[in-house]
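#struct-help
A.M.: can someone run this one for me? Single chain, 52 residues.
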Amino acid sequence: ENPFRKRIVEVFSSQPDGSLSFEDFLDMMNVFSQNAPKSVKVSYAFKIYRRY
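D.P.: on it. Structure tokens below:
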């Protein structure tokens, strides 16, 4: 299991209960896409790893 799974969901979730909507899922996939700008990837990397 990915140790960052919960944190990734927290970062991308727009729901108060921490669940992912389909739009949240698409946003997450867009950030992890090869076509995403490097600046977006770096921004989310810092958001994800900020707690660790």
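A.M.: thanks! Residues 5-49 form one domain.
D.P.: also worth noting: The radius of gyration is 11 Å.
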